[in-house]
Amino acid sequence: MNKKISPVVATVMLAAAAALLLAAVASLPLRSIHRPAAANAAIFLCLAAYSVFLTRSNGRSQRALFAPFFMLSAVLAVAGSVAGFAVPAAAGLSWVRSGFCFPGSMTRRLCAEALTCPAGLAVVWLLQPPGPYGWALGIWMFGLIQALYFVVVDIEGPGLPEKQVPDRIEQARRRSDALLREQRLARAFEELGL
Hints:
- The chain is mainly alpha-helical.
- It folds into 2 domains: 7-157, no CATH class; 164-194.
- It is built from 7 helices and no strands.
- It has helices spanning 7-27, 35-57, 66-78, 82-101, 106-127, 132-153, 168-192.
- The longest helix has 25 residues, at 168-192.
- The chain is elongated.
- The relative contact order is 0.12.
């Protein structure tokens, strides 16, 4: 039985994992790596993991992630601060999430992105405590705001027709059941002499 994880739950869980990773980056004694560069790399890795989850859970090709992450890797290379990388990373998240992971009403997706990404960045900017451990709290708050995207878009809403394509095993089972019923019916007609 293949149970699909709710994107809201997955977003909150991945935000918690990202916060733990950033807390580790903040507490490790990094001598040869500039701490904001390490934090940006951690954010990049967390965003990549989240994007892979989104594409896999929606049956999209992971090749589509090449363009956004190629551009983000260029920004990662030149970003001098965490804030300098956070805005392009949020834009990359929007591109991945609304660009090809969740098809549907363009207006609704744009409204959801216009609400969640700037709101998440604003909450981080306004409420984040100073210092490296603030990065961990900031990524956690940003992730919580990002979970609202799925409430606004309502990917499992009752108004949207859900495309359910039965898998091959289920189709084969149905065909075999139909053939068995047909064979039983043929034998019954033979026994009756019809």
